C-alpha cells in the first residue's frame, strides 16, 4: 500500500511518540521513511522604520538550527534503525512549516505523510490553527494523523 512515508518531527514529546508509531507502521507495511525537520529562518522583527535584530549572528543562528535538526533527526533515525526500517533524514529552512512538509514529501516522492496532531482545542485552535491542520488542508498526498 504505502511504500515511502514522510514523518515530520519537531522533537516535541507528541512528535516523538508519533515517530515511534510511524516506525511501527512502516515496519508492518514494508515502507521506508524520510524524517523531516523544518528549520526556522533567522528571525528579524521589524518595528516602525527599524529592525530589531537578535544579537545572534545569522551564521550562529544557522549553526544552532543545524545542530538542533541533526539531534532531532538522529533520534528519529535511531528509532527506525532499531526496528530495521530503512530511512533518510532531510531538513530545510522554511518558516512556513506546513508548506515545507508538503514540499519535502513531494520532493522525496512520498506517498503518505504521517504526523502528530498537537491537539489544540477550543479558541486556541481557532486563533493559532495547527501545522497538521494546514497540511491536511493543502496536501494532495494522503496524511495519517497520529493522536
Automatic annotation (TrEMBL):
User: Superkingdom, according to UniProt?
Assistant: Bacteria
Q: Which residues form a coiled coil?
A: none
Domain (UspA) ranges:
1-146
Quote the PANTHER family the UniProt record gives: STRESS RESPONSE PROTEIN NHAX (PTHR46268), UNIVERSAL STRESS PROTEIN HP_0031 (PTHR46268:SF15)
Q: What is this protein called?
A: UspA domain protein
Which Pfam family is one of those matched by this entry?
Usp
InterPro entries reported for this sequence: Rossmann-like_a/b/a_fold, Universal_stress_UspA, UspA
Which species does the entry assign this protein to?
Sterolibacterium denitrificans
Q: Hey, which family's this protein in?
A: Belongs to the universal stress protein A family.
> Do you know which Gene3D superfamilies this protein is assigned to?
HUPs (3.40.50.620)
